[in-house]
Structures are given as C-alpha cells and as structure tokens.
Amino acid sequence: MLVQSSRFRLLFPPIQKRIPSSLSFSVASSAMDSASPSMLFLCGKSSTESEIAKSLKINDTLNLPNGGKVSALLQSEINTFRFGEDAFNVDLFLNSLTTKRFGRFLIWSPLLPSTHDIVSHNFCELPVGTVCVADTQFKGRGRSKNAWESPRGCLMFSFTLQMEDGKTVPLVQYVVSLAVTEAIKDVCDRNGFPFIDVRIKWPNDLYLNGLKVGGILCTSTYKSKKFNVSSGIGFNVGNEKPTTCLNTVLKELSTTPNEFRREDITAAFFNKFEMLYDIFINQGFQTLEELYYRTWLHSGQRVIVQEKNEDRVVENVVTIQGLTSSGYLLAIGDDNQMCELHPDGNSFDFFKGLVRRKLE
C-alpha cells in the first residue's frame, strides 16, 4: 500500500552539513546579459569526428533553446583566440581518452548558459556519446529546476547516450555517479596522489568530507522507440567556495604542490563510464551493486519514517539495506517488514521527503 503522507528523517548523525542549494557562485551579471553568440569549438578524437565537426559548422546546425545563437568553430581555430591558462585543454583531454564511443566528439566553450541545453536541444544532430564542456556556465540547472551556477575551476560537462529499455533509464544516473568516483580514484592512482574519498549521496549527489562537491542530472526524451538521455555532471575541482573542492582537500593531504586537472578527470570519467556502462547494459546493475554500496553513504543507515494515520502521526524506524530493482531505497523495519522509500516530489532533500511503499 502506498502511504502518500509518509516522510522520514535521519535517526543517527546526518551525513551532510547544510549548504546552499546552488553548488557554486554565479558569474558576473554582465556575462549573463550578453547577447553575443556562444562560441562552440567542435573537436574530434579522430578524422571521423573531425568530419562531423566540419559538417556541423558548414550547415550551421547547432543552436540554443528559445532561439539562442551559437558560433560554431573548429578545433584548429582555438589558437586564433586568446584564452586564459586555465581554459580547458582540448588536446590534453583527447590524448588521455581511450574510449570507442563516449567523449570522442567534444564541444568546448569558454562561456555557455548551459552544457545540458547544448546536448539535449541538439541531441539528434550530434553523434551519440558527444560531450559538451564549458569553463563557465550561468544558466545551469540541477534537480527539480534548481539553479546550478558555476564559476571557473568547476568541472561542468554534459554528454549523450541512447537506451532502449525504459526500465534501465532511471538507473543510469547511478552508473554516472559511480564513474565519477572511480575516475577520481584512477587519477589519484596514476599521479601518486593521496586517496580522496568522494562518496555518493543517493540518488545523484557527490560528497567529500561531509560537504557537497558535485551532482548529476539525467534527463531523457522518447523518440523512435529509443530513449535519448542527456547526462550532466558538475564537480568542484578548483573552486573551493561555497563548500570545498578536490584541490583544497588535496593540498591538505599532500606535501607537494599537486593539483587535479579538469581534463584528466573528464577523460578518466569517460574511460571508466564506458566500461561500467557496458557491464550495466549487458549484465544489469546488480553486477555493479557491490561497488556502488562501497561508495555510497547509506548502508545500514537508520531513519525514522513518519506516516499520518487519520489524526495522529506514527513513527517507525527502518534501516536502509540497498536499492530495489527499480532504483529506489530498500529498507527494513524493526518489525522485519521490507519497504521501498522514494521521493514524494515536494522536498529539495530526498531524505526529508520520501514515501514508503510496503513490499510483499
């Protein structure tokens, strides 16, 4: 039975500190008000992707929602402009990429309203696996239409994938989250960095030392019997405000002046994601669950479920066990009753607004 009025709260210490809903500070208002077309540099790993870039430029195919204009340029034209030293290094990213599908066609922009808008609005014009990276974006969005305004130093990218089984679409955000944490581990290992323990807060947030440092946004549309999925990632790499970032924590742990580079993390992400995604599609998410549970924050977490029964509120303690096959939280009550916890859609924090569904 679905109890619409139920909610739950943490019983033992909370897993997060209270932070602003926007991950990062916004850019200057002058950039937000700019009517100039957004520059998109179309780049490819191989000659195949480079030919796609030329075609998109010649046909003037790409645009933004609501009639927003873009200026499409080729990778060879990057050096004709003067960008700062902290601009995304396209060559470094592509040279570190070992994938066969994902990330091989890159759209880079120094300033965009939203990377997610680029890939989702132009989905059918782009090869599947296209990634869009921006140095700064000023109209990014998170879950439930929350603003995601990010400054330089924050890694922001969105990419495309296509799926046929609608039952698996809600689970892909977990694969994306896992690929981010695995990519950071990989960069640490390859560069001799200290271990940085980035964890997953269900369903789509990334935490470091109790603070939110990143988030995942996956959206989809159904067309021609396929789900066109756009997945966006925002992660604090070099911007320490308003919470913390990878490089701040690395400085605290390391005696040498090491830094994470956005290009290394992005390439490592796609290298990991392609492997994990293939396992997910061919063998199911259950194959990845053990690794996912080692990375998330919730195993054994006890919460109080509040359910309204006529004029009184009844509280029951449940313990999170894992995920159900549909991707919601699986919990067990002290009465050994299994239940499924999922959002009621009215709360920003999933752990302050969930509905309990009893499982037979």
TrEMBL record:
BPL/LPL catalytic domain boundaries: 91-281
Domain of life: Eukaryota
Classification via Pfam families: BPL_C (PF02237), BPL_LplA_LipB (PF03099)
GO function terms (MF aspect): biotin--[biotin carboxyl-carrier protein] ligase activity
Keywords: Ligase
An annotated GO cellular component: cytoplasm
Classification via CDD domains: BPL
Similarity annotation: Belongs to the biotin--protein ligase family.
NCBIfam families for this protein: birA_ligase
PANTHER family attached to this UniProt entry: BIOTIN PROTEIN LIGASE (PTHR12835), BIOTIN--PROTEIN LIGASE (PTHR12835:SF5)
Name of protein: BPL/LPL catalytic domain-containing protein
Source organism of the structure: Gossypium raimondii (Peruvian cotton)
